[in-house]
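Both lines are quoted verbatim for reference:

——
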Amino acid sequence: MTAIQIADAVRRGERTARSVVEGYLAAIDAREAEIHACNTVLADSALAAADVVDAAVARGEDPGPLAGVPVALKDNLCTRGIATTCSSKILDGWLPPYTATVVDRLVAAGGIPIAKTNLDEFAMGSSTENSAFGTTRNPHDVTRVPGGSSGGSAAAVAAGFAPLALGSDTGGSIRQPAALCGVVGVKPTYGLVSRYGLIAFASSLDQIGPFAQNVDDAALLLETIWGHDRMDSTSIESEPPALGRSGDVSGLRVGIVEELTDVDGIAPEVRAAVERAAASLKAAGATVDRVSVPSCAYGLSAYYLIAPAEASSNLARYDGVRYGLRADGVDVADMNAKTRAAGFGPEVKRRIMLGTYALSAGYYDAYYGKAQKVRTLIIRDFAAAYERFDVLLSPTAPTEAFEIGAKTADPLAMYLSDVCTIPTNLAGHAAMSVPFGVGAAGLPIGVQVLAPALGEPVMFRAARALEAAAP
C-alpha cells in the first residue's frame, strides 16, 4: 500500500495503525541485518504512537493526513531523548534536549517515526560507507552502495522498512541515493522546509526533504513538513505553493541541461534514460529543447570549497566539552585535539581541513571568495534558463549503484557522484529524482527534474508525467 492508502485505511478504521507498524517492524526484522539501513529501530515508541492514533480514530477524530504512516528519519534529525548520532563516534550516545521541527510536524499529522537511519558521517559522502556504524547496502543488490549521504533513508524505503523517509540534501544527498535505490527523492527550495533540529553540515546548502515510493506520497510528506518556522532564520515566510495532484504537462517547456547530461562520466544508459524521459514528456504535450547552463561546469569545484568551509565552522562545536565523546588529555587543548582525532572519521577530517585551508589568511579570496562568485554565476545562468523553460531535465547520478569499496580510495571519483545534483544546491532551487528504468546491471536509474525557487508545483507535474511513462 502507498502512504496515502495506508493513511486513508487507518482513518476509516479499515486498518489499525498498530497493525501497520507491526508489519513494517517485521520487514525491518527480516532484512535489517543484511542491509543495515537503521542506526536505531524505534519499535516501542512506534507502537505506542500507533496506539495513540488508533485511540483518536476510535473517538471519531481525524489523526491527520499521515495517520498511522511509519516514517524513517535520517540520524542527523534531532529527536528529544532518542540518540541522534550523525553516524559519528563523536555523538555516539548523545540524547538531544529538543526535537526537529519537521519531526514535530509529521507526528502532529499522525505520522509515526519508526527508525533513525544510517548516513555518511555528518552527511559527508555519496555512498553511506563513511558511517562510524557500518556500511548500508543497496536493497536491490547488497554488494552495491545505496548512495549517500542519506543512504539509510533511501534504502529503508526501497526495502519496505517504511513507506516514507526524511533525509537531508547538501549537494545531492537525497536525490543521488533515491536514484541508486529506485525511489523518489525531493530537495525542496532552500528555506521552504525548516532546518531547526537538523545537525548542520553546510548551513547555506542543507535542506530537508522526503523519500517515497511514488510522487504523490512524496508530495504528501513535503506538504506535511514545509512552511515557515520562526526557529529557523532562513525559513521562507510566505505560504508554500499548492502542489496539486495533476500530471498534465501540456504546453510545459522542458529543457535538457547540456552541461549535466553530456559531462564526462555519465553512463550511456543514464544518458539514454534522460532522452527517453524527455521524449515521454514531449509525447504528453510538452515542448522539449536543449539548454546550456554554462557555469554548472564549475559547480563541483565551487561546492568543495564552500561546503567544507561551512563544515569547518559548524563542526568546531564538537570539542569534547558540550556533546558526546570526550577523550582524556593533560589540558583542555590536548583533550580537544584527542577528542576530535578519535571522534571524527577520515572524510570528516578531510573536509574540515579543506575548509579551514580555504578560509585561512592569504587564501580566503583566492578560494572561498572565488567559489562564492561562481555560485553567483550559477544562479544567474539558471535564471536565464528559466526564462525559456519551466523545468529542466538531467541525470540524477552518473551511473547505477557502484560496488561497495569501488571508490573509497579515490575521493575525487566519489565526489563526482554528485556532479549533476550540486548546482541546484548552490542556487537554492528545487529538484527531485524520479525512477526511470534500469541500467546494464539491472539496477535503478533516476532522472532529475529541476525547477526554480518555489517551482515545486510545476516540478511535481513533470515528475508525475515521468512516473506514468517510466519503463
User: Anything to note?
Assistant: DSSP finds 16 helices and eleven strands in the chain. The CA atoms of residues 192 and 236 lie 6 Å apart.
